[in-house]
Design goal:
- The structure is a homodimer.
- Chain A has about 220 residues and is mainly alpha-helical.
- Chain A is about 70% helix and about 0% strand.
- Chain A is built from ten helices and no strands.
- The longest helix of chain A has 28 residues.
- Chain A is elongated, with a radius of gyration of 20 Å.
- The N terminus of chain A is likely disordered.
- At the A-B interface, helix 8, helix 9 and helix 10 of A face helix 8, helix 9 and helix 10 of B.
- The first copy, chain A, binds a DNA duplex (30 and 30 nucleotides) through helix 4.
Chain lengths: ~220, ~220
DNA sequence: CGAGTTAGTCAACAAGTTGTCGAAAAGATC
DNA sequence: GATCTTTTCGACAACTTGTTGACTAACTCG
């Protein structure tokens, strides 16, 4: 049973000091403003003042609700990650049913869809990761969870003789999961080069299957 | 003949306004200070003042030599990229000799070594990429160059019947090159999860070969 | 109801950053 | 040594972030 990211623990203490009353509205307004602004411009070009004004409060009042701009984004990321954890559960269930090819595709597809639906947040998360230790830790937990799952799958396939041996399963899992992260990010950001939206899953699934089941013999 | 990144054009106008005299020393001092400081802490925690003081000049004088902190880092990245272009030439030559397996491994190894030797710069480049358009463009050129090379190799192997068909060669190339970028970055940053230094090449080569030569049939 | 705690608000401040301007110092040139 | 160009930096303006202290609205319990 691989670990689920501890979104509860991570959330603790991120928001307002105490909580009650109509202040919930303000908190929500700040979060919504952040998401809205992130669709228009990168995190680095959004100031605390922008967030405060967007939520109809002054800057000092903002600090009553959140300790920093980063904390707002971290809260948003937490929620996205928690939502994505849902698709993971489902993918593992499908996988347990036996058809790995279909299960794998389904899993990657669901995850891609979940993140794609909130591109702006994913992009902000990547940006935050470069400067914010807490964001790095959160992402580490997410990645470790996926790597653990994939490692287990690869080992199971090898054990039942369906997949040939090769590099250590965990090493393969790390590279594959990181490939997905990078390819999907590039696609969200519409970098160049990047895979077209509707090609992403086909290409990733193909490489995964070949990496897991194929041999490395040039003809 | 795939494109080489235009490091010459990109460098233009990045440094000082005019150029001559002993000001070269100062310029070098700034660049060296930047590289030195980047080994100790991330780019976001280095100020123009740090750079100036490190080079023994005042902050306004810094602006005589470079228009911004970003410009300094961009110059450093330019040089690293130009150096890395060397290994690429060599890899293509080895590849042309025929033994793709060895050539591929050699190419990935050389590139990895070139970047690994200046981890701090690579990490700074990644950080800068999230906020600086020019850095993104520079990296785009580098990536497009590699993708073009790899696409050509895959197509050649398919044409001579050594590799089976599958996803479009360019799509495969994009995913593989982006995988390498991400895996290597994680290793440099000692993220968790990440591949241990001495495992990186083995794992990447294995996945590349399976992706290029393998089929996607689960047993 | 009314004194007291609590939640919510913000003007004003402190400290840090970036980038610019204009005047002065240092060097080269004739 | 008068003149032009390069180099240098003190002082300033603009913009951040985060804090403090005082003020208001509301609730609460005797």
């Amino acid at each position: 049973m691989p670990a689920t990211p501890e979104t509860d623990a991570a959330t603790k203490g991120r928001g307002r000091r105490a909580a009650r009353a109509s202040g919930d509205d303000r908190e929500r307004a700040i979060l919504e403003t952040a998401e809205r602004l992130l669709e228009e411009r990168p995190l680095s070009e959004i100031s605390v003042d922008d967030l405060a004004r967007g939520a109809g409060i002054s800057r000092p009042t903002f600090y009553f609700y959140f300790p920093s701009k980063d904390a707002v984004v971290l809260t948003i990321i937490d929620r996205l990650v928690a939502a994505a954890a849902g698709s993971r559960e489902q993918a593992l269930a499908t996988l347990a049913e036996g058809d790995l090819r279909a299960g794998l595709r389904q899993g990657l597809e669901d995850l891609y869809a979940a993140f794609r639906a909130r591109r702006a947040v994913v992009l902000a998360a990547a940006e935050l990761r470069t400067t914010n230790e807490e964001a790095r830790e959160l992402w580490t937990q997410v990645m470790e969870g996926w790597v653990a799952d994939v490692t287990a799958v690869i080992e199971a396939e090898r054990a039942r003789g369906a997949a040939p041996g090769g590099q250590p399963a965990r090493d393969m899992a790390i590279a594959l999961v990181q490939m997905n992260e990078r390819v999907q990010y590039a696609s969200f950001a519409a970098e160049s080069p990047s895979l077209a939206d509707e090609r992403v899953i086909d290409v990733l699934v193909d490489i995964w299957l070949r990496a897991i089941y194929g041999s490395a013999d040039p003809g």
